[in-house]
What we know:
Shape: globular
Strand order of the largest sheet: 1-2
Structural class: mainly alpha
Number of domains: 1
Order of helices and strands: HHEEHHHEHEHH
Number of strands: 4
Helix content: 40-55%
Largest sheet: 2 strands, antiparallel
Amino acid sequence: MNKTCSSNTNSGESTKKGFKLFLWQFTVNSSHFIKRVIDLVLSLFLLLLLILIFVMTALAIWIDSPGPIFFRQTRVGRKGRNFILYKFRSMVADAESMKEEMIADDSSPRNVTFKMKNDPRITKMGRFIRRFSIDELPQLFNVLKGEMSLVGPRPPVPEEVEKYSPDDSKRLLVKPGMTCLWQISGRSELSFKDQVELDKQYINSQSILLDIKILLKTIPAVLTGRGAY
């Protein structure tokens, strides 16, 4: 009799655990589905709304300096998968080769990321479109392709990921985004450590509501150009 009762109890507990697991998985999948729908609808809407800005920016870049209109670069996405990120070109055409020379000539301690104020590689038009994040707009195509989300940690370059600690690698657990917590909290003025902490904070508490809050706060952050260079 006791064995039968014990068996029934264990069976009941297993059923409860199984149901809780199913409920959790359903909630996660639903959240991912809703996030993807929002990404698709908003990115399509923004592409149509900003088409004139796309055309004017492309024309201004073409007039301002020789080289391609768009800048393509390999970035690391969710689970370490590489993809090609699109931007409006804001630097001179041979910026990448100049970067290697600048790193070699600089004896100061180097961060995981390479960022500098008054970067000589940035063109006149590039400085303007960077200030207001216009250079990032082509990433809406990355969002449409499913490689990025509107909200998520910024996608790193492979060379940056090679320097990641196990803790830093947590940034790769989710799909990268066009904007994130540190983009609305100081942008390039924040240290790499602070950026990682804010990305982890987002990953641990991500929700549709949080994404909406970040998107809304991105608007004034972009319009003021604070922390962008």
